[in-house]
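We give its fold:
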Amino acid sequence: QFLYFIGFLREADMSTEDAPCTLIVHYDGTSPATKDLKEALEKGDVVTKTETLKTIIKLQLNGEPQGHFIMSVIKYCVPVENHTLKKLCIYFWECVDKMDDEGKPLPEIILLCSFLRNDLQHANEYVRGVTLRFLCKVRERDVLEPLVSAVVPNLKHGDAYVRRNAVLAVHSIYARYSNLIPDGPEFVEQMLVEEKDVSTRRHGLNFLFACAQERAVRLLVAVRDSGEEHGEAFQLCLVDTARQLIAAHPYDRGNYLPLIMSALHSKSPSVLYQCAVTLLTIASSPTAITNAANTLTQLLTTHSDANAKLIVLDRLVEMKDRYLRVLQDNLMDVLRALSSAGPDLRRRIVDFAVDLVCARNIESFTVAMKKELVRSQTDEIGDSDAQQEYRHQLVKAIHTAVIRHMDLAPQVVPILLDYVCEAGASSYQVIQFLREVAFAKPDLQDLIFDRLVMMIPMVGSSQVLRTILWLFSALCKSATSIVALVTAIREALNPLPLAPEIKEGGNRDDHGPSTISSTVVREDGTYVTNVVLVDKKKEVERTDLVGLRAMLVSGDFFLASSLGNTLAKLVVQMHHHHGHHDMRNAVQDTCIDIIDAIVTFGTSGLTPVPLDVDNHERLMTSLTVIKNPKNDFLRNFVQESVEAYDAVRKHEAQQRKKEAKQKEAKGNAAIMAALDGADGEATEV
């Protein structure tokens, strides 16, 4: 009983299985009366019949069987010579039930087959074509069997549209009922020998590969030996067929690889992309991989569509892990794509190019990046924000590449020094790079120091300026350089004091007006002094304050504490030089004046942000060190802070070398594996 119940469930499931559907049309209207629809088919004109047949098709597709209209459609619609009505009749035959409850064809279907045979032999190419396409969707053997003899002659029809659909019809019939047309592959193969239409050849090759692979192989060999130029659609089909044959028969790849390699000379971007991806999938010889990389790089630089370039770049990134050395030879070709790329694509190209930098191409890479830095200042890149973001990325790329190959640092440092004063994240990236170069290349320290001293009044970033001050304390060793630096800092803070001095009995909260005087020379040579009243509270809002002074006046006391630390280190260094007593005293007095001015200003109540306790304590500690610098402990402390950074830098350099060696070893292993797996493939190609 249990087995009987299971069998009943299976039969019920099969009986309720949805019929195959090749057409979906939504219909939310009301159902007209059957009598009205039938009368419209019988007595209406062509327009009325067309609209009525559309309604019948929609009702059938939305669950209301309309099989009782089959005879009416055959009598009143099929004989009408109207292409729109003829197409609607095809849709109706496609969706209507053509079998009864017992699985046998309806009596009307015999008459329908007669009309379909006439359409397959119709003088109009469109009628033949749509009828052949309809047969591709027919599953009933009883409908197809009497029509086979009328389908085959269409393979030699004079119009390509008919031949194309005839191949599809033969393919569909042979795939379902091969005994109805056993010579189908032979007919199609004979037709393809002289066929010139690209789509017809593509459909024919797909049919032969699916149903008669030995004939498809013969066709591929004939195409390979002919050396003729083929259309884009057929070339794509050839490449895909060759790929599947190689995957099924790996030891016969020598017969099909030349076909794919010859397709690399196509002018179609889609064919080139498909060939390159196919070579990466099935080939392992150096020649094939190099050709694939060159093809993808060519598409990246020449294709006009940004989305296509992103897809190509993704394939190149996937190649990087296995074929890094091959891609390194194409670095300059990859960088050429920057000239015609959008913001997102430029960012991804630069990131990808940095990973390809090696000792062989580092010099070319830096030259290209320097040109891009110059181009980033033009309107070609975009607005100011886009230019700034792009420059930051370029500077970061140069930083990453040159740190791995310090020998080229002298070529890059003079150019990057011009970007220290730029607003945005790129300036901080530049100063980080200069800091590493200064320790890795001591011969460049003088150049970096001199240029940075000149830029103190022009730097617009507090973070960058703090790094510069630390770098000064590490690079300044001689008495003359210390004097020059302290003088430059003092000039950058002019005029001092930062806030008006508070007289005895005065009030710190006095925000009364002060005076600013200026002397003007008249045309007759006389001098006139102009006096202007200025509110003390608005001193911090002056727009003519730039660089170090502007940041301090705006209340950046963290920068002030960094300045105090730098001045203290400089004074300690100065007092351990023998001689230069006058210079030491002058430097010490200047540093004391600077810190006193900062503390006085911070505690005056005129600042937007009051001087906090932590920074006040650091400034006072720096002031104490400046007043008492003659201590060996202080000198050792200054030296050890520099040595600590140098140790960290060396450790990071060792890590980079270790990672580079691992990456190179991985790439060499991939190349050796590719060579071992080639099996003579390179010779065959």
Observations:
- The chain has a mean pLDDT of 79.
- Residues 455-501+543-630 form one domain.
- The chain is about 65% helix and 5% strand.
